[in-house]
Batch of 2 targets.
Target 1
Amino acid sequence: MKSTTIIALLHGPDQPGLVSRMSSWIFQHGGNIHHADQHKDLQANIFFQRVEWSPTGDAKEEAARFRAFASEELGMNVHVALSTNWPKVALFVSRLNHCFHDLILRFKAGEMNGELACIVSNHKELQAASESYGLSYYHVPVTKANKPEAEAEQLKIVKDHGCELVVMARYMQVLSDNFLTEVDCPVINIHHSFLPAFAGGKPYHQAHERGVKLIGATAHYATAELDKGPIIHQDVIRINHRNSIPDLTRKGKDLEKTVFAHAIRLHLDNRILVYNNKTVVFD
Amino acid sequence: MKSTTIIALLHGPDQPGLVSRMSSWIFQHGGNIHHADQHKDLQANIFFQRVEWSPTGDAKEEAARFRAFASEELGMNVHVALSTNWPKVALFVSRLNHCFHDLILRFKAGEMNGELACIVSNHKELQAASESYGLSYYHVPVTKANKPEAEAEQLKIVKDHGCELVVMARYMQVLSDNFLTEVDCPVINIHHSFLPAFAGGKPYHQAHERGVKLIGATAHYATAELDKGPIIHQDVIRINHRNSIPDLTRKGKDLEKTVFAHAIRLHLDNRILVYNNKTVVFD
Amino acid sequence: MKSTTIIALLHGPDQPGLVSRMSSWIFQHGGNIHHADQHKDLQANIFFQRVEWSPTGDAKEEAARFRAFASEELGMNVHVALSTNWPKVALFVSRLNHCFHDLILRFKAGEMNGELACIVSNHKELQAASESYGLSYYHVPVTKANKPEAEAEQLKIVKDHGCELVVMARYMQVLSDNFLTEVDCPVINIHHSFLPAFAGGKPYHQAHERGVKLIGATAHYATAELDKGPIIHQDVIRINHRNSIPDLTRKGKDLEKTVFAHAIRLHLDNRILVYNNKTVVFD
Amino acid sequence: MKSTTIIALLHGPDQPGLVSRMSSWIFQHGGNIHHADQHKDLQANIFFQRVEWSPTGDAKEEAARFRAFASEELGMNVHVALSTNWPKVALFVSRLNHCFHDLILRFKAGEMNGELACIVSNHKELQAASESYGLSYYHVPVTKANKPEAEAEQLKIVKDHGCELVVMARYMQVLSDNFLTEVDCPVINIHHSFLPAFAGGKPYHQAHERGVKLIGATAHYATAELDKGPIIHQDVIRINHRNSIPDLTRKGKDLEKTVFAHAIRLHLDNRILVYNNKTVVFD
């Protein structure tokens, strides 16, 4: 059985001795560092760190003490997590099922350090499949007219399940600025194109029209500005003139699955730090 | 020694029996087909073909006869070339030398079915290197004021050398609509980004600012509308938060070299058919 | 609705006029060629072709007539298929479920031009999942002692379902020479390494031990000689020193899924020609 | 102008407080850490670290002090380098020139943190090109009979130039165990295949014969056991049935250039730690 480790993600203005002070704090509290990765943005003079260690005492208490130390004494922005404390995840879906099945099977296979708590959808198509996987399914229809009420209902579901991450698995609806503020946890989206090219809808049609030779997919954190949030992961696949739009769609689906799953795993492994609308990924 | 083959690139409205009529023509004239690749755009009802064969008689005459047959009797757009007839190539450069050296060494190594005829530059930096490679170098300074005269001089150089292809190896200047019309041969450009993302200048700065996880390069035919010509080849390379803009530039240079060389080779192998501002690449 | 096309895969000794004679035959019988790809191995003087056309008359009869023509009059090895005639597929599995779920979901999503007819396993672990997918599951335990009887039972299942393809989705057992002969249809296997490196078992352990920087997966046709059959498709993924063997296994599973699915799709699209223990893939 | 940083690569048995003790030492000596990356092999209980910092005092003296501290007080294997202290590099070549030109142009373009000191070859073909680059060229013919004397001469050249790295740019000769011991510095080789597949000679012929779908290249440190040294970097490129052996050779050359250059850059950036015949690459 794996023992609990503490993982801290930190960033803030650089100052002399940061690595030393943090590692000494951990050492003096009996911790044993397994992995640590520091980076400095020399232009912006910002320091970034991911550090993971085994504590000797109670992991939760030790994590809280480290958080207090890093934020109060060092003035760092700090996120602290326990490796054995798996966040609950809300999966938002629509009718498209490729990311839906792929993610659920990965969670069930133990590939993800998180727990799927609920499925939320504006359609009924994936209800039976969700239930056969043993997952709670909430059907919340969304129209232009009812959007505020629908989002309030979605928020309640997310909160009631204690979710700390929302995953938009080709949910196909824009979440409002208000929702993103109120939900108060990260929201990860998959865009079916290589952003910033072909932002918006129907990217495969756009790509086919423009005659590009590679199509891509982009996983990013959702922000109020559509398709402009911090990019987590991207990949591309080669296409040619023999590929019709349905071929691009099929190739794109494979790409979306792997790019999305990788991004969610990075997040659940506490490997992503957001900063200036960009990500630092400690992989 | 390789014997001469004839290569034909054809496209036009589909009609019954095209493959049969063309292959029968070749067979009846004593030709032996080595490779043939047909494709049909079912939506647009356009037929595309690349066919390569060994003629029995004089290759040049046979090629002319086939061209007449395909255009007059079948109503196809047709380009016919001989494998042993290497086009002369004009290389336009500025100060940046990575594509310059890379391409020249590939031509010298016999990787390209073409002949480097001349180097044209608006700067003097690469003159000595060009001459040490034994290549004719033409220094044509370009300013806002003298652009028409400069382009006239460039055109004369290209024509005097009998060039059938112009290659812009990070030439960094926009060729005018008039030049592109007058030169009357394909012009291949390398754009140091994954078009259509980050078109225009300083794409690595744009990519760094946006926080993308992959940077790319795009080889395309130059057209009057900047960075909008038919895309020939593209590729990407992974970057991360540790990469500064100079790192992106260095990684991008490697990508530009291989993407550009591949595109030029495809062109010189007569593998590219342009159609609706897109390319069909028979590779 | 897509109309039926006929697809022919041919190879044999090259002779003058093959393309012409085949395309003329198709034209004279009222067929309209959609795609055709010819290739010649100049060293071995072997001709290869994949051609796809819309017939005017009854597709099945026309296909039989073409087969007779190509084999008897042209002396070619020929495989002819109808685009609407989806082969039945037997899926052999063991306990590992990643390729199992991935393939079934792809068949259900309509990505594959075939029909999953039955699941055969030497274990019971995937029985419930198979049945929840609505698929027939046959549990055939295999031991050293009962292998001939077990294989006889497996053969009967495959034959009773009229399967024309067997897919070994990490089945983990070697099929005997006798089985491969008797089953009389292609058998596709996925090997969890980049063959020929690390053939045999535990390739991820071998890769970790050797310190390679990329791991791969290989889909190939099964032959009597283990891991030596014709390679259909391969791909690799980058690894680093932070990756433990479980990480390699997880990354490898993703690779196996996409490589395997792509190979099976190529087969079901009649894009693979086997020749000299190698494949010609018309993609 | 970039100021001097100190880079240390360390590994050894894990013990509590290593990160803390090292970073505190650096802090107490007035150093400012720019990047640090620690890794622990949990199975083998080995600790690895790359740390880079700006010293306040004399960099060379500080580096020596740190080396003494890390080896004597912490019992670590330690390599310390100054970012501004570029090692001299000996380039061994034969007749093949693709890696030769590529590397020299990269050194000249300032892409490499090292200095090309001399070219050593068993042939005369690249003498003129070397000299036109302004590089010292030593022609040392090697035969079975004179190998010991030839290697003694090569050793003397390497030592006389003060080289700290030998690069075998398709040198095509095996360096003896004795040479590798006597030269007393790392030797990097490029193998034109994806090791361990197709070790030894003519890998493209082997790959073509086996019908693989990807060919690769591997950069590794040379050891007495041929093609078995620690792997630094690998990459692959896709091939198909249309590619003849000359095509594989051409594609392979591109791969060899980029894989080799990347490996040499990693080495000159002090990013590689060798351990148990494997590398840990801090990239």
Target 2
Amino acid sequence: MKSIPTFLFYLTGLLAVAGAAETPRSEKLYGLVLHGGAGVIDRKALTAEKEAEYRAKLTEAREAGYTVLQRGGTALDAVIATIVILEDSPLFNAGKGAVLAADGKCELDASVMDGRTQTAGAVAGVRHIKNPITLARAVMEKSPHVMLSGDGAEQFAKQQGYTLVPNEYFQTEERRVQLEKAKQREAAKKSARLETPDESHLRRIARYGTVGCVALDQAGNLAAGTSTGGMTNKKFGRIGDAPIIGAGTYAANATCAVSATGWGEYFIRVGVARDIAAQLEYKGAGLAEAAAVTLAKVASLGGDGGVIAINRQGQVTMPFNTTGMYRGYRLSNGKNAIAIFGETP
Amino acid sequence: MKSIPTFLFYLTGLLAVAGAAETPRSEKLYGLVLHGGAGVIDRKALTAEKEAEYRAKLTEAREAGYTVLQRGGTALDAVIATIVILEDSPLFNAGKGAVLAADGKCELDASVMDGRTQTAGAVAGVRHIKNPITLARAVMEKSPHVMLSGDGAEQFAKQQGYTLVPNEYFQTEERRVQLEKAKQREAAKKSARLETPDESHLRRIARYGTVGCVALDQAGNLAAGTSTGGMTNKKFGRIGDAPIIGAGTYAANATCAVSATGWGEYFIRVGVARDIAAQLEYKGAGLAEAAAVTLAKVASLGGDGGVIAINRQGQVTMPFNTTGMYRGYRLSNGKNAIAIFGETP
């Protein structure tokens, strides 16, 4: 497992962490961090125009959540407000613009956790819910369950008064092209007598992100949420880390709120979000230190991605060990940033 | 949340822990622990004949796994061998004899994790797989994924050469009666204008267990597995803790192997299996101490259940905060037990 590429991932992870934002402790600080996915973001392919679009949408989403906090709203409301905007944008792999599964349909996962009560909600494999993050919240607040899946989750949505949208609402031309390319690569592999997609292929198609937000409100409560369209050319009802409480999402007032993005299988195995919180809880680690240790674990197994986290003192971190992660934060002390590559925000 | 019942749960948890087995450290010790579910097990309703049946089946399953270990087999093989026997028995809520969902069908979840590689596999909501634990293992070993769900998981099974069984294979008369009773209670609640099932109702129907096994082999490797039929009268594609890596199942050679059973929603929120391992990893806690702390967390939120765990030194623990937990263990130093109620095994 300790191959040279693994070592490079590890190193990249540490460098990314070195660029993470760390703010001084303050009782009354509030704010939020958001991400729009980590992965191979090609600097050359990202035109100035496209980059401006990403930055504008990340800013819009951040400000929507921040306004909730500024007006005294809850961390949970801020997380939802931010994620809904990212879901509604075709730029990100969540809600509209989600990647296409092998059958050409979008299949969406989302989860949310309230740090105040440690209650949580998640949905996996829904196909007709415009904003899966709001359904995850409904599961948390209106059902005795944490996780609902597939058609059953949509039956619950109908009971809750949701209007289902046709799957075509989510589908975009860009994602159809990505699916076609993925299928061509898969076919090429098969004709080369490789029965299963190899790791480098998976590495490429796993890179189309996720969105997430973590927030600390004026009352000192934390919340976290994550939403995704999963993997291009996904088969077999695969569930990644985004709807798994403890992997893609975790929040507890006693520790921190975390949302993850990356190669889901590795994030589940490490239990990324919970692992970061556990280091704060059981060894008194700092937030940035804990996130770095956890991402290094992911890298040591061969995976990659990034996380965003905030604690009750308003410290934030947003490390990643990929070439880029769409991300940003804003705190009530005025500190804020929007970033894509390894620049120190 | 800190009601009197909660306090009692907490206390029962500690008492159960006090009765847990703890063995001296030894490099070459190997063995396994298994459970057949924790819940309200009524001493009076459990006839001597029925109790003997449970003890015999638990013993048979334990010996099947132990034999694998004794012959130098892997912890993973031992876990599968043990769980397959529990799945095949109608006595436990897993495989044959699983509880029925609201639509009268059995819907099965399982997961497995190999502590040597920290690889994991899980299936959720399968309806035609005789031994879901073996499919969880196939997901781990033959797919690039960790978690597959529903029809998709069964498509993968077919690709792997599985023969699907009709859902009727799993269904038993006893479980049909339980479903009818659950539906009658639900209807009574609704006619009493209570729209959602209340907690005490959920508490009852959540109690029909899960099966699991954790093992340490002669090479010093750990593995854990869990399999369940979920909740009686289950709706909306609900997914509990059993197929969630970090909640129902976790194994890492560096810490321990854990399988959980109980009220799944609370076990997901706490991330039970990973939380126990995290205490060993980050604060050097003992296995029994860590399991007790984690179960106390579950209790403080209002949930209950039990766990089994083993570490690389062959220490074992099997605490619960319900009236009983079908459980047993056997170690290569000769120590062994089969137990149901709070007796010190």
